[in-house]
Specification:
The protein is an alpha/beta fold and 365 residues long. The chain has two domains: 55 residues, DNA polymerase, domain 1 (Orthogonal Bundle); 288 residues, Alpha-Beta Barrel (TIM Barrel), CATH 3.20.20. A hairpin with a 5-residue loop joins strand 1 and strand 2. Helix 1 packs across helix 2, helix 4 packs parallel to helix 5 and helix 10 packs parallel to helix 11. The longest helix is centred in the last third of the chain and has 22 residues. The radius of gyration is 22 Å and the shape is elongated. One of its GO terms (molecular function) is methyltransferase activity. This is Probable dual-specificity RNA methyltransferase RlmN.
Length: 365
């Protein structure tokens, strides 16, 4: 049996675990210091711990559970990492460079069951949730990679927008946030963390009631139920009306701004009348909502959707502006490597499958 990653525990959980196993709670701080400040990758590199304590930790936990499979670096500095989990599954993590700092996009599930029709991740259904340790370790792997380059660079922002639906893995996602925001650990402030959801209404409410305090983004993608149901089947379970009510609950409870993501699909949801309808939907929430327009990244050459033209994107943007809606267009990163989140992984799986099929054919000949 493989050991769980120690990165999955908050310092309090680690202290409680140590106490249960007959060790002083205060040792958790030493372990924490080793993991997140010195960033050691083996318990043997924590000489400040008593040998019995080190052995105990070694018996029950691993520090490194992800193995780098592939890394692609783009001309704009974006780096996509493909990691192999202990069970052999592949996941993707992306490092992006911005004016304001370095952000990491993390994966929360192996595949995704929400099945949005424009998304590479949704084409591969979920095989399992990631543990909080596996999510934290993605950030640590990227930080360790940066440490190795010796430029003194630090991951400053996190977007939970990789493969998977974070609110369908709520407990692990929450623990992940508690670990990385700890000021004595990675110290990534909740205002620097954005979680994106396809709109699981009860979980949006639970998130609003929680102490997590991160930014929230909602994948809205359509101005009405007809279009939303066509492109996101989750809209059957949680249509726009209850979704907007949950958003209002979040806004009222937290008094924070929210991002509404809107992927532009040619002739599907990108026409001036759609922009007008979206402006009306955002309506009274305009002071607390920012619409983020996302140019569609074709999933593969057989995609049923096409990217909207620059002119269409500009016209859509202008209509929202004219209606006093706060709007931005998402800058793209790493378009010369494998564009959308999930694409590197799905390509690798496709090529592994093709290789497997070829090997099978050869064996049968
Ligand atoms: N499951 C969550 C978070 C992961 S997806 C969610 O859906 O919000 C992160 C973002 O990438 C979402 O807004 C999603 O709609 C968008 N996305 C998915 N496929 C895309 C594609 N092919 N091109 C551009 N954006 C895409
Ligand atoms: Fe899942 Fe998000 Fe992709 Fe939809 S867009 S299939 S919810 S990862």
């Amino acid at each position: 049996m493989s050991k769980p990653s120690i990165y999955g525990l908050t310092v309090d959980q680690l202290a409680a675990w140590l106490a249960e196993h007959g060790h002083k709670k205060s040792r958790a701080q030493l372990v924490w210091e080793g993991l997140y400040r010195k960033r050691v990758t083996a318990f043997s590199e924590m000489p400040e711990l008593k040998p019995e304590c080190r052995t105990l930790l070694e018996e029950h936990f691993a520090i490194q559970t992800l193995e780098e499979h592939t890394r692609q670096e783009s001309a704009d500095g974006t780096i996509k990492f493909l990691f192999r989990l202990q069970d052999g599954n592949l996941i993707e993590t992306v490092l992006m460079r911005h004016k304001f700092g370095l952000s990491v996009c993390v994966t929360t599930q192996v595949g995704c069951n929400i099945g949005c029709s424009f998304c590479a991740s949704g084409l591969l259904s979920k095989s399992r949730d990631l543990t909080s340790g596996e999510i934290v370790e993605q950030v640590m792997k990227v930080q360790l990679f940066l440490d190795g380059r010796q430029n003194n660079e630090r991951v400053s922002h996190i977007v939970v927008m990789g493969i998977g639906e974070p609110f369908d893995n709520f407990e692990h996602m929450s623990n992940f946030i508690r670990v990385i925001r700890d000021p004595k650990g990675l110290a990534i402030g909740p205002r620097h963390i954005t979680v994106s959801t396809s709109g699981l209404v009860p979980k949006i409410r639970e998130f609003a009631d929680s102490d997590l305090g991160t930014n929230l983004a909602i994948s809205l993608h359509a101005p009405n139920n007809d279009i939303r149901t066509r492109i996101m089947k989750i809209n059957r379970a949680y249509p726009i009306e209850p979704l907007m009510e949950a958003i209002d609950y979040y806004l009222e409870k937290t008094n924070r701004r929210i991002t509404l993501e809107y992927i532009l699909l040619k002739d599907v949801n990108d026409q001036p009348e759609h922009a007008q309808e979206l402006a009306e939907l955002v309506g009274s929430r305009r002071n607390l909502a920012n619409v983020n327009l996302i140019p569609y990244n074709p999933v593969d050459e057989h995609s049923q959707y096409q990217r909207s033209s620059k002119e269409t994107i500009t016209a859509f943007y202008d209509t929202l502006k004219k209606n006093n809606i706060s709007v931005s267009v998402r800058l793209e990163h790493g378009t010369d490597i494998d564009a959308a989140c999930g694409q590197l992984r799905s390509k690798q799986i496709q090529s592994d499958r093709a290789r497997g099929a070829k090997a099978n054919r050869a064996a049968n000949e």
